Amino acid sequence: MGIKYITLSCVTALGLAACGNTAGEQAIIGGAVGAGAAAVAGGSIATGLAVGAAGNILACELDIVGC
Q1: Is residue 67 part of a domain?
Q2: Which of 2, 20, 21, 58: CA 20 to 30 A from 28?
Q3: What pLDDT tens digit does each residue of the chain (67 aa) get?
Q4: How far apart are CA 33 and CA 28, in angstroms?
């Protein structure tokens, strides 16, 4: 997978991130968005899931998206 798809997955996951109340909820929500973005972009769904989950947890914990 090229850097283009990884970047697309990261931006999509962070841009559409919706916080949950716990780290588990944040991982599930972010993972779903990341996997969806990867599927649309034709990338690895597993990579999109991992990047989305990590991105959403990071975004929520650092209050980047105003959770």
Answers
A1: no
A2: 2
A3: 577 777 766 666 665 556 778 889 989 988 888 888 888 888 899 998 999 899 888 888 888 766 6
A4: 9
